Amino acid sequence: MLDGNPWRIDADRIIVGGVSAGGIGAVQVAYLDESGEIPQILYDDTLSIGAIEGNSGWPGYSSVPLAAWSMSGAIGDTNWIDTGDVPLVSLHEEEDGVVPYGTEEVSVIGIPTGLIASGSSDIHRRLDNVGVPNCFFSYPGNGHVGYLNYDLENAVGRVASFLADVVCAQPIACGNVALDVPGVLPNAGWQPFPNPTTGTIAVQVDEPAVITLSDVSGRVVLQQRASVGMIELDLSSFTNGVYMLRCVGAKVRSARVLRQ
Questions:
Q1: How far apart are CA 187 and CA 247, in angstroms?
Q2: Backbone angles phi, psi at 105, to 5 degrees
Q3: Dihedral angle sign, alpha carbons of residues 188, 24, 99, 109
Q4: How far apart (Å, rounded) are the C-alpha atoms in residues 206 and 193?
Q5: Does the bond joining 196 to the residue before it have cis omega, within 30 degrees of 0?
Q6: Which residues of the chain fall short of a pLDDT of 70?
Q7: For the domain bounded by 200-259, which CATH number is listed?
Q8: Which of 6, 73, 131, 192 has the CA that lies 20 to 30 A from 186?
Q9: How far apart are alpha carbons 195 and 200 in whole angstroms?
Q10: Is 235 helix (H, G, I), strand (E, B) or coil?
Q11: How far lies 137's CA from each of 71, 122, 153, 191, 220, in Å?
């Protein structure tokens, strides 16, 4: 490495991971690792930049990670996953409306793209079928990485525990079963209604909070302070599409709202 590796980086213990789009990228890095797996539409462009390994980076060092982690990520084709590939830990919500939980067409603000992707559930199934070590934690709910709002410590802990086992060459101790979240999820009973809406939505607020509504670009289009009680928001002047509603008080809650 450059300057004799002053940071003492172990090139054999590099892990790739991310959340949402980062998880999607991490999964492709881990499993789109053969020239024959490159989609035909990308074949010429990929060859022009050096095929799988590319023309940049560190010649002489492998691009294969030791392991991968993904929070609500997806892969273009589960057939890219083969026996002997790197282990993965993944988390996903069962009714995620942004990144597919299983295998389905991807849509953007409700518009079909024609692209098919497979989320964590089907990635886990393929990993099991070809014998690649993995852990999969399936959360109930229809949010997108909403579990980070109420189960952050446990979610990060599950990833860290899995990766510690891999790095230390220990047997992986997690169970590949659906996660049992005790009690009522914090977002339960908080969901805005009606949803979808053609105008007004209502939401129950149980503590002083700031409510914000953002469009798909992340731009805040509505913000107001709220006290305890039923709050109504008027979306009748907004364009049709998907918005993210957040309620920030002692707890942070979020939900997707469809204006149609």
A1: 10
A2: -70, 135
A3: positive
A4: 16
A5: yes
A6: 1-3, 108-110, 175-190, 216-217
A7: 2.60.40.3080
A8: 73
A9: 10
A10: coil
A11: 10, 12, 14, 23, 32
* Distance between CA atoms of residues 232 and 123, nearest Å: 40
Residue 30: the pLDDT is: 96
**E strand or H helix that includes residue 165:** helix 152-167
H or E element in which residue 231 lies: strand 229-234
Which residue do the tokens 């559930």 mark?
Answer: 121
Cis amide prior to 194 (ω within 30 degrees):
yes
Find tokens 């002489």 and name the residue.
60
Structure tokens at 55: 């023309």
What CATH fold (topology level) applies to the domain 2-167? Answer: Rossmann fold (3.40.50)
Structural contact between residues 226 and 205, judged by C-beta atoms closer than 8 angstroms: yes
- Domains of the chain, by residue range, sit at 2-167, 200-259
Which of 227-231's residues contact partners 24+ apart within 8 Å by CB, and which partners?
A: 229/204, 229/205, 230/202, 230/203, 230/204, 230/205, 231/202, 231/203, 231/204, 231/205
Distances in Å between the alpha carbon of 213 and those of 65, 222, 224, 258? Answer: 38, 5, 9, 11
Instruction: Determine contact, residues 97/142, Cβ cutoff 8 Å.
Output: yes
Amino acid at residue number 59: P
